Amino acid sequence: FSAAPTGGAPLPPSVCYNTTHFSTMQSRCQRRSDPFGLLPDRFRSRMFTGSTKLPPTKTPQPERLDEVYAALRRGLQSYLQVHQLELDSLGQQIRENKKNSRLVRALKAIERFMRRLEFHLSKVEELYDAYCIQRRLRDGASKMVAAFNSATGSREARESLSEANKGYREYTEHMCSLESELESQMGEFHVKMKGLAGFARLCAGDQYEVLMRYGRQRWRLRGRVEVSNKQMWDGEEFTFLPLITELLSIKVTELKSLANHVVVGSVSCEMLDLFCPLPQTLAVDINDLGTVKLNLEVTWRSNSTHPSNQQPSVLL
């Protein structure tokens, strides 16, 4: 995951930076000619019903949840580090300017926001701990089911097997419920359309359609290349709710005529690296040669709203 700071004072090593190039993430970004048919079942986009959240999965995904939890926790910790830098900067300015009411109000607002972030982080950690307990209980019940299945068919063995199966189902339901609850703590991804980059590929008058699918969420927008090479799009911003078991699918199509549409390329991208406190500029390679790129700006916002409803500035 390549990244670089946008300016100002250097951030701590553990703080995410804000420029990302998806072409370097070959292990997390899979191109395919069939845009929605080759992903594993657990990542395959489903039919859209208008809902923006997936229902709880019927089968727990503990390995995937481990990855999501680690990324979410890392993102919240980075948020706290960035705002601590803001807090230190404000404190220094207050000491230099003495009684400045505006700076004092800003400092108190950031302190309140950091307390909300800390509470949010503790909530996420509690959910994960509860999930791990249910996972261990489920694993134990699974072993008991296997043991009783291999035992003799006595009445006691059948009763014990029934109880073990019941416990296994209950622990499975609890895990699915906790996965859904953790998903509700993952905040939002705000995506801004920055246009296509195609070097000599894009010409004045060309029209394109971009379709992004993320679980049941969908963003479709169309754009046109003007004579001045400026691009006009019918949509500029969209909000995706993070999901545990889904990848972001992007498909770009050139609209040549009503009956002649040419698929430029499709790509599926991992979202875990986007849990970062600062906005990230993404250049997504749409085709195999990388001659067409989709430029996006992605901002992750946790459930704790920043006091100014903006992203941290690091230095004030």
TrEMBL record:
Superkingdom, natural source: Eukaryota
Domain FAM65 N-terminal: 44-304
InterPro entries reported in the protein's UniProt record: FAM65_N, RIPOR3
A matching Pfam family: PL48
Membrane-crossing segments per the record: none
Family as reported in the entry's similarity comment: Belongs to the RIPOR family.
Identification of the protein by name: FAM65 N-terminal domain-containing protein
Annotated source species: Kryptolebias marmoratus (Mangrove killifish)
